[in-house]
What we know:
Layout: H1 14-43, H2 50-76, H3 103-121, H4 129-139, H5 142-162, H6 169-175, H7 179-266, H8 270-297, H9 307-324, E1 330-336, H10 339-343, H11 347-368, E2 372-379, E3 383-390, E4 398-400, H12 402-407, H13 418-428, E5 432-438, E6 442-450, E7 463-465
Parallel strand pairs: 1-2
Antiparallel strand pairs: 2-3, 3-6, 4-7, 5-6
Amino acid sequence: MMTEPPPPPAASSHQTLLVLKILRVSLHVMFAFLLCFGAVLALIGSVYQVRHAALGVLSLVLGGIYLAGTVYENRRGLPATFPDLFPRPGASARYRQAARFTPAYLWLLIITLLWLGLMALDSSFTWVVFPIMFLYLHLLAPVAGVAATLVLCALAIALPLVGPAGFGLDYLLAEGLAPGYLIGPTLGALLAIVISFTYRALRADAAHQYQLAQQLRAVQAELVQQQYSAGKLEERERLAREIHDTLAQGLSSIVLVSRAAASSLQEGKADAAAAQVRVIQDSAAANLAEARRFIRDLSSPALDDSLVSALRALAASTETAQRAAGKPLTCAFILEGDEETAKALPEEVSATLVRIAQGALANVAAHAEASRAALTLSIWPNDITLDVFDNGRGFTPHSLGSATLKTSPLSDTGTGYGLTSLTERVTRIGGSLDIESTPGEGTVLTARIPLNQTSQQPPHQPLPTQEAQ
Length: 469
């Protein structure tokens, strides 16, 4: 059964494409040379006859049809159906289905008939059969191509001997058969078969390499998309932490103090209301500066001076805001260690400690109902710890795995992200977070960060939590 050869790959290695191109060009050059060589041999050395004109016309027609077919294939590929020779927009696909007899087969048949016509006039065109063998081997299925090549080989042997322009049977019976008439076409056919199968193997290898390259590009594109999606998710989580620990906490404080100011005005306490309004103004100004810093370069909050100064200012601002909200809270900062060592900490460690302190004090202010709180920064030789203590109502801790922490939903009011945010922050730099609490006796949150392994990511430790956070 005749089948179309597989289409050449759109891209492959440069070396393979170069070899395939050289083989195609060599085939065309060989056809043109052998056709011209046969025409010259047939037309010279004898007196002009009518058959000379026929030879010239057939040679030109054969060369023109061969050239037209090769140019069309090079530009548009092999047409599957005859309507594909002149495609029309909107043509029905039913008429473009692959047919058993294609325009390529018709082209090959015409070339063969023209060659047979030339052979009937003069045996000088015997050698033109070799490039025609390559055409059959290229366009037909392997078995059909080999069979057609053997038939052409037999014709190339028989026609110069007993054909219209051959020596004739009487001459063969009298003089015998010269070995060259058998050896030449036979070797040419064998060579054509070997080269054709080599060409097919190169095409198959090129197509295989192209498929592998396409698969590799698809995998690379998928990996890029996965990395992009993971980056988007990580950036989204980071932005959520930043907003929660900065603007959301500040706005929450403003809401509480504004309610207290409204109550003071209703009770006629103008001085208290004025102090509360100043606290609101200070908090709003601080949050506005934080927002601008956040938009500008996402730098760490309140670290324009040092970690110690930032924690001390955070304790003071929390105490002022709680007093203005009508919930007095004494908040102290304690440093255990060398302040110069604290100043030399990596910026990522300092920023994380400030964020943890912000989140922990925000939880104390919102849920603990405490009268005293303390931030304790302890600097040890191998690690640094931050303890946040309050004497509030406490709670009964229960352990939750990291998966539960990361997937626990927020409350209807948008709270519930604080402990998850603190956990993610400290684990990102290789630290750990622990909470100890007893109902009625207060809570201690401890963040521990190793100073020599801040870039590592140890396994997440199960942490206690409370429903209010």
